[in-house]
Amino acid sequence: MIDSTRLIEMAGRLGGAVLVLAVLASPRILQAQEVTYARDVAPILRENCEKCHQPGTTAPMTFQTYEQVRPWAPMIKEQVEGRLMPPGWYIDRTVGIQEFKNDPSLSDEEIATIASWVDAGAPEGEEVTPLPPLDMRAGHEYWEAEELLGLGPPDVIIESPPYTVEANGQDQWWMPDTPLPQITERRWIRAVETRPADEGSGYVFHHANTNLVREGDEDRGGGLSSAAVGKRLDLYPDDAGKLIMPGDVLRYRLHLFPIGETVPDAKIQLGIWFYPEGEEPRFVTNDETGFQTGESRALGLPRYTDYLIPPNGRQLVRGLHVLDRNARVHSIRGHMHLRGGYQMMEAVYPGGECPEYASPACAGGREIINKIDWHHKWHTTHIYEDWAQPLLPKGTVIISTSLFDNTADNPSNPDPDQWVVYNRRSAGEMGHIRFGITWLEDDEFDELVGEREQLLRQRTIAQEGGADAAAGG
Questions:
Q1: Cα(210)–Cα(226) distance, rounded to whole angstroms?
Q2: SS3 of 362, please?
């Protein structure tokens, strides 16, 4: 079935009854004509699946031809109907905010097309127009911000000092400080991306964070970037940025691990995109923060280190923090290891009442912002749509919850018979949740609230207009 809420929202955005009627008719179209691989399914796989399911990637099968896809048809249906594929999106769809800029999920219509094709016996059909070859490049050969967002090449590329990872041994943490001779003037950053410098570096890469160290600054310049599997881009809101200055020093925190062969001179590269010269953004963003680090602008949620997860058992930890300043949240990202179960962030608003701009999930002054069903292979940053970004007034209580699952029910669990404690390696556990944060003064917050309420009114009018058009048709 076509999700009616999404349908009306699409109509509201585009203001077209034609779109509504076309989509409403699509199930009948699927029934009236045979769904085939060549005409209907191959374009969906090309757009959403082939980037991973092609030779030379970690995917266990290739989806480039009918002969390659056909044996996996029942599994493909199961995976897409369960919304397990495309991967990397583990937001619980039953609670919290559901409007994001970077949701890679298939549409209801695409899922219905694949299901109908499989149910019909997965016919091949006749190729209408051959699909052009997919231009595939390794992770160190492209910039996501350039290809997907159209930002152009980075204004500055910074490469970390090299580190040789021996063939066998313990995980390594490489944390050098490096001057930035490339930065010759004050500039405002709009995006930062982290990628391996070469193929070998990509194999030993676990995660990489960087901080700006600035003399005389109480925040020490603040965090600059963070990257892990499934997450490489730090994209700030359109009206927010981060300052970088001559004399700043870049502090790396790289987690590298051996792969059975020596990898000499492992490095990462940071691509930085600036606002136009002389332009200052409306707001200064703190970007991702989620635990008490001693920085004056960190979100003061505990980063627990006293885990003791029993064999074949679970442990739930919870943290509370009262905001002492107003905040706008533009993204959410979890972090756990192999025994991760789920993570959740909630907001309890001052006065016990839900503001008008809160999501429909808010009740009694308490809102589940999001619940992330954890999967250790993907550290996705979920970026909210502009009209869905949580606006949290000072006095809001933030509740963070992390559930660890050390049972055989957890498919990522390597050994449920072990006691598990805190450790920076994946065999141990971590649990912290990061918000993309912009701190706001009272007048700035009030201004954003007014803008949000106006935007929501406009969207409501557009949605009602789209629904009326659909009913009239």
A1: 6
A2: coil
